[in-house]
TrEMBL record:
Gene Ontology BP terms: isoleucine biosynthetic process; L-leucine biosynthetic process; L-valine biosynthetic process
CDD domains to which the protein is assigned, alphabetical: BCAT_beta_family
Protein name stated in the entry: Branched-chain-amino-acid aminotransferase
EC number: 2.6.1.42
Amino acid sequence: EYLNMVGDWSDARVEPFGPLSLSPAAAVLHYAQEIFEGLKAYRHDDGSVWTFRPYKNAARMNRSAHRMAMPQLPEEAFVKALEELMARDGAWVPNGEGQSLYLRPFMIATEEFLGVRPARNFNFHVIASPAGNYFGGELKPVSIWVSRDFARAGEGGTGAAKFGGNYAASLAAQLQGASRGHDQVIFLDRSPEDSLEELGGMNVFFVTKDNKLITPKLTGTILEGITRDSILQLGKDEGLDVQERSITFNEWKDGVASGDIQEVFACGTAAVITPIGQVADLEEVHTTPSTDFPVANTLRNRLVGIQTGHEEDIYGWMHRLA
Ligand code: PMP
């Protein structure tokens, strides 16, 4: 089912999943005013339904809206939409190990016109869809392709917005990587230094042998991942030396070759934490030294433990939906 909100955001209703009615001249179809979010609903052992840090998603959607000249949605209305959908659809949230219900809020420009200008009418919807684990199994290391031909986003662009066009821009790189047998793509900032940005749908982390936990800093060109932010906190709790800074592709290559970098992993709502076993460009394949990814496992277990209600939620990250 999905939740449908139009107009002043006050007339929300839950409807069976089905086609939308949209004018062929709707602005979203031509000028791509479209933003979205992704969250998961988890069923806890007592039957209650929870989600993870939804006000972070609400705030990020409003930042995306600001960048795309779209209207703000009050954070309370965003969270209430999830609650209303789960009040109706809560029974859909599965029980099984590693299972959850994926929630996809999105806003589109529905006004019909053919000139280039910001639209004035928008719909906000939330889709609920059962989700398994993103890459199939538990912590199976993935292989990453470095995109040299394509950028995902540039400075002053839309990279920090969760905006459909960014994903469209990443697909050609994704195809290139897939045709060479890789699971995911990582984008560089295309400066002479080749600083790392993020994967098509995940942020990236490095664990060094002297216990540093490093992730590219937020430059305005990458998505401010909520999993990323949470891992920075959990990493501190584990006593790691947490660093947000620019890190180059050469540091990755040299680090895994010398053993200074022991683990590499990607993170996001869908897969939580996924180890990166190798990274390849046209010239070479660079293999991550660790095969058992102990730090990635520890952080994943803590985060999944909080999300599934099996570990104490000391930061108040969980929000009860139903
Ligand atoms: N980067 C991109 C481009 C993404 O699409 C996502 C998924 N939302 C992430 C990073 C991770 O963000 P989060 O942890 O909030 O899911």
